[in-house]
Amino acid sequence: MDPLLPPSPVHVVGIGTTPLSRSQEHRDEALVVEAVRAALADAGVAPARVTGLNVQSHHEPGPDVGAIARELGTRAVTWAPAGGIGVPGLAAAVRALTARRADVVVVCKVMNTAAALNQPTVESGTRLVTGRDQYEMPYGMGYTVQRAALVQRRWMVTRGVLPDQLGTLCSVQREHAMLNDNAIFHTPLSVEDYLASRTICDPMRLFDCDMPVNGAYAYVLTSDPALVTVGRAVRVAGYTAGVPDDMPHIRREWAPGARPDVERLYADLGITAEHLSTFMLYDGFSFLAAEWLERLGVVGPDLLGKFIGNPDHLRFDGPAPLNTHGGQLSEGRMHGAGHILEAVRQMRGEAGERQVANPRYAAVTTAFPSTGSVAILEATR
Amino acid sequence: VTSPPHNALSPLPAVDDASAPHWDGLKRGVLVVRRCDVCDALNHPIARECRVCESPQLRWVEVGTVVSLYSWAVETRPVIPGMEPPYVIAQVTPVECEDGAVRLVGTLLADPRELEIGMPLELRAVLAPGSGRHLATYVPPGSS
Description:
The complex is a heterodimer. By secondary structure, chain A is an alpha+beta fold. Chain A has helices at 28-43, 65-72, 86-98, 144-159, 163-177, 191-196, 260-269, 286-295, 304-308, 311-314, 327-330, 337-348, and strands at 11-17, 52-56, 104-111, 128-129, 199-202, 204-205, 215-222, 234-239, 276-280, 361-366, 373-379. Chain A contains 12 helices and 11 strands. Chain A has an 8-stranded mixed β-sheet with strand order 2-3-7-1-8-11-10-9, with helices on both faces. Chain A has a two-stranded antiparallel sheet with strand order 5-6. In chain B, the strands form 2 sheets. A 5-stranded mixed β-barrel of chain B has the order 5-6-7-9-8. In chain B, strands 3-2-4 form a 3-stranded antiparallel β-sheet. The two termini of chain B are 14 Å apart. Chain B is mainly beta. Chain B contains 1 helix and 9 strands. Chains A and B meet through strand 4, helix 4 and strand 5 of A and strand 1, strand 5, strand 6 and strand 7 of B.
């Protein structure tokens, strides 16, 4: 970002959700329409004002976006890319708004995963595996959870992080989920429960993995000052450009500690990690959220295990409120959208029982810390 | 976990022009990866361009049989047809790779309780059951 540019004029002005479910109860399109209508109502924006629509799904075939636009009653959509996730999706919408390709953008994540993408494929009958998978499948590796287990092992050993410390992080996120009516889990998770949960791919345990759910989460972004209500609008202060990556285990490893692109983002905004009020950190696997604390410069690699091992540090009323909605581990796997919506609630002061005191900046992250991306949202209160 | 987990149904590489030198190397019992003609950096066999300088000029080179252990995971579930759990998935770095940034996946034949990051391992190429293809397994030095 050029420091001479004026502050980003893009704000989140509305959020909306459907309930989350463990079963496939609705059509993709019905879920999207319900969440988008709720977000537009929250923003006080009529569907006819929508000029950008980004529907993100994780299955094929994806939803019929034309049918969604007709059902919503949008008439003037000029920007409608398919797909995306979390912060990279937010960043793409901000770029469309600043380039004046649209002035009101709705982003909606829908999870309704009967058949998810990224399943390993072996040619039936021949046992043969093509492309990059041929270097891994013959060794029994074809799933993201296995790749993540390799990253987790290396990370735990090199930082000296113990299983019960990761379990504490999971336990605190569950406490937060119990304060969130939309969360899929409503019962406590003790560190003992965590340690007793079954092994998925050692060192990965069941409760290290996020919880698949079905539902839709939407948010409304605008560059039109007339739609911005100071207090309820949340400014997109800045972001880093990451690359969503399903091969994190073969990418270059960053040096331990804060990342250079994060340091640049802080410098552009005139802040440090100490200015961040709350942390919505991607937790497709539990260790990712902890590693993000390190990458954001909140705590050094040598102290990370002890830091996350103290639940008082991570609770909504502690110094580093982490995933106050429960995260994907305990609210449900909404692929980065849950983190964005919770950051908006917190910056508005509308997070209810789990509200962080006097928040100013929220960090939101997506994907693996080695290659993922960061957004900073700022309260206008 | 000290004998190969592969059986007559386990996945095999669909060897093509872009990957044959790697798999033919294993048949000879050596690791074959790619080295950049311009900056000399070693690259993963799948690389189409150099990870350091982005040159597309990569050549195949032998990097011997000694690697160091980068990370490992123990798969305990039968998630891949033809792979009999438990087995150890290893990520290893050829010792010739100075910056440690080339990591190959293979099967580690060792007691998982006795593993340490950075420990040396030796390549032991094994014939996959029911095929003419060799796969990479790794063992601690001195294993029989």
